[in-house]
Amino acid sequence: MDVARLTTARGVEPHAHHPQQHSEEHTVVTVDPTVQLRLLEVQALDTRLDQLAHSRTTLPEAARAQELEALLRTLRDDVVLLRTKVSDLDREVARVEGDVQAVRARADRDRARLEAGQGSSKDLVGLQHELTSLARRQSDLEDAELEVMERREEQSTLLEATEARLASTEAELADVVVARDGRLADLASQEEALRDDRRAAATGMPEQVVKVYERLRDRLGSGAAPLVEGRCDGCRMPLSPSDLHALTSKPADELLRCPECERILVRADTTA
Question: For residues 149, 155, 159 and 165, what is the CA-based torsion angle, rounded to 10 degrees?
Fold first, then answer.
């Protein structure tokens, strides 16, 4: 079982050119170098888990599915509106056709009476005038009927095109959803495997180390980094010669902190 020894001492003083940092008492933690190595493994697994989480929220298939769902809402609204317009125009065409038929029937009756010579001369003259008026009325109604039918045909054509686009968009969305769900399932499978690996890597790790690591990771995005060629691989800042000497002079089992970013540092010789 890994054991950490805790003692209180003054840690490496933060540099004056970092006003966000301040001098404080640090708890010095001594941890077996193999635990430090596993801490880097945990960090690598956490980084990969963060990447997978980011991938889940930025899937192209998910973005496309949202676009298609928004388009479908618009198309469905358009279809309802166009169907209503076509239905209204159908009723208008029927109404105008009824008016035309009524005028034609009246003209046929008047024409029959006129041809039969029924009534007085005055009545026959009145019938002739009424036939002329009915002819104008019928012409106006037929023009109106033609205009309504043209509008109806235009809206019907637009409705058919919109319904076809709606159907194709629904089909595309179905395909995209399948692809999206497949990607999400794959990411979930990878995450499950990584979480299993992380649990194994973190098993037996001292609670004090875990608390420090998690706090730093929440604040900085990563809690531990290797010390590589005189710099912290977390913040990538080169350490001053005095800081580097102070850190590398400490015992191998002492948990180091970067004086620049405060991440936990694991020395190269620990990882060798």
Answer: 130
**Bridging pattern class, strands 224-228 and 264-267:** parallel
Which residues have CB under 8 Å from 91's CB, separation 6+?
Answer: none
Structure tokens at 192: 């499950």
Residue in 138, 158, 156 with CA at minimum distance from that of residue 90: 156
Residue 67 in tokens? 């676009």
Q: What angle do CA 226, 199, 207 make, to 5 degrees?
A: 70
Report the distance separating Cα 106 and Cα 118, nearest Å.
16
Reported as a pLDDT band with limits 50, 70 and 90, residue 269 is low
Contact 92, 148 (CB under 8 A): yes
- Per the listing, tokens 């479908």 go with 72
Helix intervals (H) in the chain: 33-57, 60-116, 121-202, 207-220, 241-248, 268-271
Band of residue 203 on the pLDDT scale cut at 50, 70, 90? very high
> Over the stretch 52-79, which tens digit does the pLDDT of each residue have?
999 999 999 999 999 999 999 999 999 9
Nearby residues of 15 by Cβ (< 8 Å), 6 or more positions away: 21, 240, 259, 260
Q: Which tokens hold the place of 52?
A: 């997978």
Instruction: Kindly report the backbone phi and psi dihedral angles of residue 257, in degrees, each rounded to the nearest multiple of 5, phi listed first.
Output: -125, 135
The one-letter code for the residue type at 127 is L
Specify which residues 231 forms β-bridges with.
228, 238
Cα radius of gyration (the chain): 42
For the whole model, what pTM was predicted?
A: 0.67
